[in-house]
Amino acid sequence: MTRMVRVLRTLLWEFSLPLVLIVVWWGVSARSGSLYYPPLSRILTRFRELWLFDRFGSDFVPSLVNLAVGYLSAVVVGIGLGVAMGLTRWLREAVNPVVQFLRALPAVALLPLAIQLLGIGWSMKAGVIFFGALWPILLNTIDGVRSIDPLVTEMTRSYRITRRERIRHVVLPAAGPQIFVGLRASLSVAVILLLASELVGSSAGVGHFVLQAQRQFNITDMWAGMVLLGLLGYLLNLGLQVIERRVLGWHIKRR
Amino acid sequence: MTSSTSPVVESALLSVSGLAKSYGDGASRRQVLADVEFTAQAGDFLTIVGPSGAGKTTLLRCMSGLLAPDAGETRLSGAPVAEPPADMALVFQDYSRSLLPWMSVVGNVTFPLRSRGVAKPERRTRAEEALAAVGLESSARLYPWQLSGGMQQRVAIARALAYGPRILVMDEPFASVDAQTRAELEDLVLDLRDRLGVTFLLVTHDIDEAVYLADRVVVLSGAPTTVTAVVPVDLGRKRDQVETKARPQFVSLRSQVYRLIRAAAEDKEAK
Ligand SMILES: Nc1ncnc2c1ncn2[C@@H]1O[C@H](COP(=O)(O)OP(=O)(O)O)[C@@H](O)[C@H]1O
Ligand SMILES: [Mg+2]
Questions:
Q1: B91-137 pLDDT, tens digit each
Q2: CA diameter of chain B
Q3: The ABC transmembrane type-1 domain covers which part of the protein (chain A) (predicted)?
């Protein structure tokens, strides 16, 4: 019972401000004759017509696939390489200058090169997302692994813990909170790059759709696309939070 | 242990000889261990006592294969120790840092056994036995951070017991718990020695504790450290926090150890 109350209160806090804003937007825009700020009701109608589910498969799914491929490969490479670099001094010292140089390059600046090399297909988009999302994950993983308590390392050595067990059950959980900081930062970078890559060169995708709508002066469609992007970012973040809660339950409860 | 003809080193479970260690180099080089030498017989309860900064932790790290000494060697069951031996388990002073907060109590206790290739059912039974031995059978599912300091140190002891070592090495294990808990834990390890026949080597800076627990007390000088004396403690197997500590023999042993430490310190200052 108290649990229910707590959940309800959390939901109330989470959604009260957005609800207020939506209501205000709805009210203010209701009788709007402006071409650029159509009434929210019209935007939502278009939203339903477009995304449930007319253009869902043709524009939304490709975007989602690019995002997933780019982001998930950044997660795998970032954590894998980060653990290796965090644990091995020579590797860290050898690779670090390259990492510092590459991460200083804004991923958007790489778009022309990526188009040159990979064309404007999905591999270019996933590639750019991968490149941008990699650094926060990699650097945070290295940091997390390096900040493991030396006493814990001493304990694993004295109990002759195998490397595999140590990485799986000590290094990854210990670096976990820091790794999730990187995962969250990378996720927003990934969504931004998804858009950027679709704006520059594309024949499908939500970003492409928004740009097309603007060019053809379908301002309501443009708004509907933007609402979808906002929702996408929000839901992805929420999903990541749910995963974090499950994986780092011990960490969250301890605080 | 009864044979008097064979050299001590051969019959000893653990022998430390000529151990030396310095930290840093050049002008900041500082010698911590000068020449440390002692042995422990199987079934012994050996305590090592010395002032803070004497290099007790350094000694344990060298002995247990965690740190390479500059000179000298440690032998466990006759074999030289180069890396942490499978027959030795360590209990650290800082229990809250040496337990893994993402594992339950039973998870922490069984964790080293997985690397040893112990099958799951046996891991279970060993953990249950070890937790029962330290009186924590009902806390197996909890997490270390849900327990008091004394209980956490019990978990660390259970982990060491489940590992199945021939010698259990403890670095000031009770230095950060309150006096009441400390007395309980002291009696717990004495009881474990009696019931399980494990050899104990316990490091402390507390002279009372060193005498109360030991069959023999190894007294260290201050850094650069050597063994000043090995004091046999003839108080019998059964010890009691009140009765034993009130005995004239205990009091005189305590004074003896105290004088040895003070003499070593004055000796160092004179040089
Ligand atoms: N890793 C290290 N590097 C340099 N000096 C150290 C290191 N560890 C310990 N020392 C120094 O060696 C001395 C002995 O330390 P330690 O073995 O921890 O003593 P104890 O455990 O008896 O208090 C101290 O002066 C300490 O500052
Ligand atoms: Mg110490």
A1: 998 988 999 999 999 999 999 999 999 999 999 999 999 999 999 99
A2: 60
A3: 60-244
Q: Are B112 and A250 in contact (CB < 8 Å)?
A: no
Tokens at residue A85, please? 């670099």
Segment 136-175 of chain A within 8 Å of chain B by CB: 149, 151-152, 154-155, 157-162, 165, 169-170, 173-174
B69 DSSP 8-state letter: -
What pLDDT, in 10s, does the model give residues A33-75? Answer: 888 888 888 888 888 888 887 888 788 888 899 999 999 999 9
**DSSP-assigned states of every residue in B95-130:** HHHHS-TTS-HHHHHHHHHHHTT--HHHHHHHHHHH
User: Looking at the domain A44-254, which fold is it?
Assistant: MetI-like fold (1.10.3720)
Distance from the Cα of A237 to chain B's closest Cα (Å) equals 24
- Which residues does B220 contact at the CB level (< 8 Å), separation at least 6? B36, B48, B49, B50, B51, B54, B55, B56, B59, B226, B227, B228, B264
Element (H, E) at A228: helix A219-247
Tell me which residue has its CA closest to atom 27 in ligand 1: B53
Sheet architecture: strand order including B88-91:
B79-80, B71-76, B14-23, B30-40, B225-232, B216-220, B45-49, B199-204, B167-171, B88-91
Query: Where does the pLDDT of residue A1 fall: very low under 50, low under 70, confident under 90, or very high at 90 and above?
Result: low
CB of B66 shorter than 6 A to ligand 1: no
Q: At what angle do helices B149-162 and B105-115 cross, to 10 degrees?
A: 30
